[in-house]
Amino acid sequence: GAVVSQHPSRVICKSGTSVKIECRSLDFQATTMFWYRQFPKKSLMLMATSNEGSKATYEQGVEKDKFLINHASLTLSTLTVTSAHPEDSSFYICSARDTSRGRAEAFFGQGTRLTVV
Amino acid sequence: EDKVVQSPLSLVVHEGDTVTLNCSYEVTNFRSLLWYKQEKKAPTFLFMLTSSGIEKKSGRLSSILDKKELFSILNITATQTGDSAIYLCAAWPSDKIIFGKGTRLHILP
Q1: I need a labelling partner for A88 at 20 to 30 A (CA). Which of A16, A72, A94, B15 fits?
Q2: Residues whose CB is less than 8 angstroms from the CB of residue B39 and which lie 6 or more positions away in sequence, other chains included
Q3: B95 touching A (Cβ < 8 Å)
Q4: Structure-model confidence comparison of residues A98 and A76, the more confident one
């Protein structure tokens, strides 16, 4: 299947600092990538849909200024958690769809465990 | 509002048992239904179902979609301890993928 790489896999940061998470599609071009957040023992919550070359579409309740998304190329989307606080600690996962060959299933990155201290 | 509901939320069975996981959905512009298995990290893809009534199989796992009843099931036969995981169902309307809360499956040896 298609490969999506997410980096870093784990990050610990101080409260008030910003953290950038990268999501790359390694062997396909992804015009659309998705960012999810997962709390312990809970399902994936869609935060935003990242569109290459345009603004991201955020889900209701997700702060745009808090979670900055940039999709600068067809293979890279970034999520920046700005002014992080302990409540932002979570597991963040990106996914991308390879629609170029008519494939529709989404492939996931490895996820990033963010801990804000 | 688009939603995906999975049941049961958790399930504990003995090795060798057969389990059926349920997923119902209400989404606009439905395209496909997806099943994923999540262990310690990110989910791994199992099946994508687009057509009603066509069973997809992979080893001991199989799944089918009923687009009339807006429902899908995931079957696992002869379960093994390695099947213990959270199984996520997701519906794909328009351009985003909506997940259910998942079924936490635990297989006892």
Answers
A1: A72
A2: B85, B86
A3: yes
A4: A76
Token pair of A92 as six digits: 């963040």
Cα A61–chain centre separation: 16
- CB spacing of B100 vs A107 below 8 angstroms: no
- Averaged pLDDT, A62-76: 92
B101 min Cα distance to partner chain A (Å): 4
**Residues of chain A contacting B87 with CB distance shorter than 8 Å:** none
- What percent of chain A is modeled with pLDDT above 70? 91
Q: In 3D, which of B99, B104, B106 has the Cα closest to residue B35?
A: B99
CB B104 within 8 A of CB B10: yes
Asked if the model's pLDDT at residue A90 lies above 70, the reply is yes
Contacts of B97 in chain A (CB under 8 A): 34, 46, 95, 106
Percentage of the residues of chain B whose pLDDT score is greater than 70: 98
Q: What is the mean pLDDT of chain A?
A: 88
**Mutation for B interface: A33, A44, A60, A98, most B CBs within 10 A:** A44
pLDDT tier, A30 (very low <50, low <70, confident <90, very high otherwise):
confident
Q: Which residue has 């955020």 as its token pair?
A: A58
> Taken in order B76, B81, B82, B85, is the CA torsion positive or negative?
positive
Partner-chain contact A107 B45, CB within 8 Å: yes
Closest CA to A48 of A87, A12, A90, A92: A92
Sort out which chain B residues have CB atoms less than 8 A from A32's CB and list them. Answer: 95
| Spatial separation of the C-alpha atoms in residues A109 and B106, rounded to whole Å | 25
